C-alpha cells in the first residue's frame, strides 16, 4: 500500500527558481529511489521552512528513504528535521482529487 512522507526543516538559503537550479541534481536522484512515486517540493520563505511531501509504494521503502534523507540533510548542515510516514485513506483522498499514482 502506498504511503506519504512529510518532511520539513528550517531553511533560510535560496528559494524558488534559484532553489530549483541549485537542487536539480538532488531532485533527479530522488527519482531513482526504490519505491518512489512522486514528490511535492515545499518552501515557505516567510516561515523559513523547506521540505516536501513524497509518495512511496510501501512503508518499508518510505522509512528507508526517510532515514537516508534525514542523514543527508544533517550532512548538508540542517537540523530540527521533522519527518513522518503516513498511511493514505485512498477513498477520501480520491474524492479530494489526490494524485494517488
TrEMBL record:
It comes from the Bacteria. Gene3D superfamilies: 3.30.70.100. InterPro entries: Dimeric_a/b-barrel, YdhR. NCBIfam families: PRK11118.1 (NF008333). This is Putative mono-oxygenase ydhR. It comes from Aequorivita viscosa.
